[in-house]
Amino acid sequence: xxxxxxxxxxxxTYEESTGDNAITLAEICSKVAxxxxxxxxxxxxxxxxxxxxxxxxxxxxxxxIDAIDFGKNTGFLLPESIKQAGAExxxxxxxxxxxxxxxLKKSIERAKQAELKTVVCAKDAEDAEKIAHLNPDFxxxxxxxxxxxxxxxxxxxxxxxxxxVKAIKSINNKIKVLCGAGIHNKDDVKKSVELGADGILVASxxxxxxxxxxxxxxxxxxxx
Length: 224
Ligand code: G3P
Hints:
By secondary structure, the chain is of the alpha/beta class. The protein has helices at about 20-35, 50-55, 80-85, 100-115, 125-130, 155, 160-170, 185-195, 205, 210-224; strands spanning about 5-10, 40-45, 60, 90, 115-120, 140, 175-180, 200. Helix 1 packs parallel to helix 10 (about 210-224), helix 5 (about 125-130) runs parallel beside helix 7 (about 160-170) and helix 8 (about 185-195) packs parallel to helix 10 (about 210-224). Bound molecules: SN-glycerol-3-phosphate.
């Protein structure tokens, strides 16, 4: 069950969130979620889904799935395998893994068939509006040029959040809206929520932090 408001941490393929380091970070996220009673989820590498989902009590997401069926698809990520490994949802169309629109549509359909919730990334409000017609569970708006930086979307481009919320909710008000890129502190989170977001998608602000737990607790303070 993925509740909002939420903080989703994208582990990407950083060294600090790969393999054994992914386990350590996942345990931190689970502990902080439990202690602060906050909705926190983690998007981990597909190779880590199984062991992480066995040890944490928070939702685990895949970073991607492929729109394929059972059969001859060597090396692809089968949605049903991802589900059986323990994921509840999947990211799709991340800025670092864009899909063309038809493939995105098929990927959302396949995720639904496999009972995986979908968190689809969009680069701006116009993109978000188009994606809203595909009825994913979440849309995460992330201006690509701010990803991995230190200036947050809520600071540099607040209108991207408010315009996206307006556009998405006017098409389907059940879709939850997240925002991300450059989010580093509680003020970034607070402002995102004030602008109408149902939560945030964050990576480097937590994964690359000197103290990951303190960085996460700071973001949590912005959500409450
Ligand atoms: O998926 C999250 C993301 O792309 C934002 O990355 O490092 O700017 O928080 P970051």
